[in-house]
Amino acid sequence: MNDQPDAAGCVVYRYDERGQPLILLIHDQYGKWTLPKGHLDDGESAAEAAVREVREETGMTGELGAFVGSVTYMVQKKSKPYRKRVDFFLMHADGGDAVPEAEEGISAVAWFPPHEAQMRVGYHQIRDIIVRATKIIPSP
Fold first, then answer.
1. Can you give the pLDDT at residue 81?
2. DSSP of the chain, one letter per residue?
3. pLDDT value of residue 66
4. Phi, psi of 58 (to 5 degrees)
5. φ/ψ of residue 64, rounded to 5
């Protein structure tokens, strides 16, 4: 059994002017708010893929932090059901503006306080990842 995930992403965060965390969400090709994530390339670790996907989908770079957790769900692959696993990590944003990458299917990006991010996210398992991440985001 392969222990590598199929995809990886990040809970990208920064602090507002009061030192409160903000979480970056993307508006995906299915019309839902979620976290940046994507597939692993051949020979790439989950952490490497997570950093690359954040950069490709939002233009953001940052310092990779702790592993947050995994989600699994069923997808169709070549007309067969397939269990997909996505690993998520914390990432402290370096700064600069997030930009939605239309070629990646991203129509918008925005920063939200953790509670609002949890409410906006369109996938219940991603809400759980945000809850976990909120508990381990370090103080500024």
1. 86
2. ---S-SEEEEEEEEE-TTS-EEEEEEE-TTS-EE--EEEPPTT--HHHHHHHHHHHHH---EEEEEEEEEEEEEEEETTEEEEEEEEEEEEEE-SS-----GGGT--EEEEE-HHHHHHHBS-HHHHHHHHHHHHHPPP-
3. 97
4. -130, -10
5. -70, 135
- Domains in the chain: how many in total? 1
- What pLDDT score was predicted for residue 79? 83
Residue 78 lies inside a defined structural domain of this protein: yes
Which residues of the chain fall short of a pLDDT of 70?
1-2
Residue 38 contacts residue 53 (beta carbons within 8 Å): yes
Q: What is the CATH number of the domain that holds 115?
A: 3.90.79.10
Strand pairing report for 33-34 and 37-39? unpaired
Residue 45, domain extent: 7-136
d(CA 73, CA 29): 18
pLDDT at 1: 43
Assigned domain for 1 exists: no
The predicted structure's pLDDT at residue 82: 80
